Amino acid sequence: MKRIRYSKYTGSLADELEMESLLEALSDFLLDSGFQSPFNRFQELRGDQTLDSLRQAVRQALEYGDLYGGAMQEQIDQLTGEGEIEKLIEQLLDRMERENFVQFDRGVPAAAGQPQTPQPGRVSPAGGETAAAAPEVRFQVTDKGLDFLGYKTLRDLLGSLGKSSFGRHDTRELSTGVEIVGGSRQYEFGDTLNLDATATLGAALAREGLTLPLNLESSDLHVHQSEYQSSCATVVMLDCSHSMILYGEDRFTPAKRVAMALSHLVRTQYPGDTLSLVLFHDSAEELPLSQLARAQVGPYYTNTREGLRLSQRILARQRKDMKQIVMITDGKPSALTLPDGRIYKSAFGLDPLVVHETLEEVARCKRSGIMINTFMLASDPGLVQFVQRVSAMCKGKAYFTTPENLGQYLLMDFLSRKMKTIH
């Protein structure tokens, strides 16, 4: 008789550690924006996107002592030998890659017939360290990793707001969708064929009487009515001029976290919506959300007008009921793209030419039905006056907040407009 012997499962420590907790502990490193802060435990790594820097960041996260609690942390603390710690770090890196939180760029693979080049610092099967060969292996955060960081930020923000659920864009109109909220009506061309069988048969019987077979005509068809839910196209205009990391605080990283939280919110709760990202500085460019983690502050000037122009072109491609621009900035418009492509710069800000052209672009947004909501991370008098004019022209809102409160203000505004009925 065949016998099966069972033994106790003894998994490795790396398999038992929660990868989500590790990723959350590394978020300051993965989302580094170039801000030099003595309070950042990953400061000396400077956000370098190399495998060696990631290895050092994981080591610091493990040695900090608050990553895991209870017995799990005790097991980590008991790893006294350098070889044991290195082996755990390599196993965690392998898990991060295997579970698609990060992706490593190991360069061009070896040609056929040639031995593969071992990676620097990898532990060989014999237990020793392989010889260093590749000069540098880089990594990038995957879409899954960014989505998880956005989810964590969103959960923290919703927790601070005391909200546990959120809906879609409800309106007062009725349509022929799936969720039935009202009586049926006669079918019209283009309606969703959510057939009301009772009303349809009733109309046919009223027309022909109790006869068999019962002939149905197009005029007999009735469909259920449901609430019409509109869709929204949003462009987040994110200021990445150098002032976002000056004056003793990092304003850019909190803005990146909020953008990732909005991306997760739109993807999971408002699947009919779209969210795009525009970075503006001396000029402006559209940035895929998957590249947001690597975005850092750029040149010194703030070309608000070029950001608005690019945002309008993006929104013009979207066939949505609502279109809006969410602008996060801390500076006055100080640059302008001239017709010949040259960039006119004014170091003092609020230059009459720059302000005039920027407000002209705001007026174009208004004529296109685009609302602009502005979140300001500074509050000098000249900036307040400019933002008030922008808000008045587009019937938008202006919030003067801080990096610590930016997420709460922006999320409150976003969700409140999703909850209210559109007139």
Task: Sum this structure up briefly.
The protein has about 425 residues and is of the alpha/beta class.
Report on the structure:
This protein has 423 residues and is α/β, with parallel strands linked by helices. It has three domains: 121 residues, no CATH class; 211 residues, Rossmann fold; 49 residues, no CATH class. Helix content is 38%, strand content 16%. The strands form five sheets. Strands 9-8-7-10-13-14 form a six-stranded mixed beta sheet, with helices on both faces. It has a two-stranded antiparallel ribbon with strand order 1-2. Helix 4 packs across helix 6. It is flat, with a radius of gyration of 28 Å. The C terminus is likely disordered.
What topology does this entry show?
Elements: H1 13-16, H2 19-25, H3 27-30, H4 51-64, H5 70-77, H6 82-98, E1 102-105, E2 138-141, H7 143-161, E3 170-180, E4 185-186, H8 197-208, E5 222-223, E6 226-229, E7 232-239, H9 252-269, E8 274-280, E9 284-286, H10 304-316, E10 322-329, E11 335-337, E12 343-345, H11 352-367, E13 370-376, H12 381-394, E14 398-400, H13 406-419
Parallel strand pairs: 7-8, 7-10, 10-13, 13-14
Antiparallel strand pairs: 1-2, 3-6, 4-5, 8-9, 11-12
Helix pairs in contact: 4-6, 7-9, 7-13, 9-13, 10-11, 11-12
